[in-house]
From TrEMBL:
Database matches in Pfam families: TetR_C_6 (PF13977), TetR_N (PF00440)
Record-linked InterPro entries: BetI_C (IPR039538), Homeodomain-like_sf (IPR009057), HTH_TetR (IPR001647), Tet_transcr_reg_TetR-rel_C_sf (IPR036271)
Residue span(s) of domain HTH tetR-type: 26-86
Species the sequence originates in: Antribacter soli
UniProt KW Transcription keyword: yes
Residue ranges, annotated region (Disordered): 1-20
Protein name (record): TetR/AcrR family transcriptional regulator
Molecular function terms from GO: DNA binding
Residue ranges: DNA binding: 49-68
Length: 214
C-alpha cells in the first residue's frame, strides 16, 4: 500500500474534486515560491513586497496570504526550497558513493545553471548578517553545519594521511565554504563581460581542493 501524503494523513485521502483542488493549491504555492525567488534575488527581502510578488504570480494579495500569511513565512518557504534542491542532490551523490568534496563541487556545477537561486543566496546572505533579519538564524545554522561537516571530513582524511602538509582541518573547512560563496558573487558579476571570461566556479573549487587534499 502506498504511503500517505502529509495532507492525507491529516485530512484523509483526497478524492474527486478535493484531489484536484489540492493539486491546484500545491501548483499555485510552487508558482508563488518561484516568483518570490526572483523578487528576493532582484531587490532583496526588504525591497520586495507581498503585493508585488502576488501581482507577478498572477494571484490576488488575499490569495497569496492564504498560502503565506506573512513575508517571513514566504521567505522561510523559499529558503527551505533551496535547501531541499541542494540537499536531495547531495544525498543522492553520496548514496552513489561520491566523495564528500566531489559532491560539494557538483552542487557548484549545478548552481552554474541556476542563476536565480545563486542571486537569491547572494542577496539574502548579505542582508541576513543583521540579527533582526528573519533569515539570520537560517544562515547562521547553515554556516555552522557546513563548517562542522567539512571539518569532520577533513579530520578523517588527515588521520589517513589524506591532507597536504600544514593543512589544518577547521581552517581549511572555513576556507572551502568562503571560497564557494565568494565565487558566487564573482560569477554573477562576470555576466557583465564576454561569456568566455565568465568565472568557472566549479573549476576554482576543484583547484583549491587539489591543493589541500592528497
Amino acid at each position: 500500500m502506498p504511503a500517505k501524503t502529509t495532507a492525507e494523513a491529516v485530512n484523509g485521502p483526497a478524492v474527486g474534486p478535493a484531489r484536484g483542488r489540492y493539486a491546484k493549491g500545491r501548483a499555485k504555492r510552487s508558482e508563488i515560491i518561484e516568483t518570490a525567488i526572483l523578487a528576493f534575488a532582484e531587490v532583496g527581502y526588504h525591497g520586495a513586497s507581498l503585493r508585488d510578488i502576488s501581482a507577478r504570480a498572477g494571484i490576488s494579495h488575499p490569495g497569496l496570504l492564504h498560502h503565506f500569511p506573512t513575508k517571513a513565512a514566504l521567505l522561510e518557504a523559499v529558503l527551505e526550497y533551496r535547501d531541499t534542491v541542494d540537499g536531495e542532490a547531495f544525498r543522492e551523490d553520496r548514496a552513489r558513493g561520491t566523495d564528500y568534496f566531489e559532491a560539494l563541487v557538483r552542487i557548484v556545477e549545478r548552481n552554474q545553471v541556476r542563476r536565480p537561486l545563486v542571486e537569491l543566496f547572494a542577496a539574502l546572505s548579505t542582508e541576513a548578517t543583521t540579527p533582526e533579519h528573519p533569515a539570520h538564524e537560517f544562515f547562521s545554522r547553515r554556516y555552522d553545519r557546513l563548517v562542522r561537516e567539512s571539518t569532520e571530513q577533513l579530520t578523517e582524511r588527515a588521520a589517513g594521511g589524506g591532507l597536504a602538509p600544514g593543512v589544518e582541518p577547521a581552517q581549511a573547512a572555513r576556507s572551502i565554504i568562503a571560497l564557494m560563496d565568494g565565487l558566487q558573487v564573482q560569477w554573477l558579476l562576470s555576466f557583465d563581460g564576454p561569456r568566455s571570461e565568465r568565472v568557472d566556479m566549479a573549476a576554482h573549487v576543484r583547484a583549491y581542493l587539489a591543493l589541500i587534499l592528497r
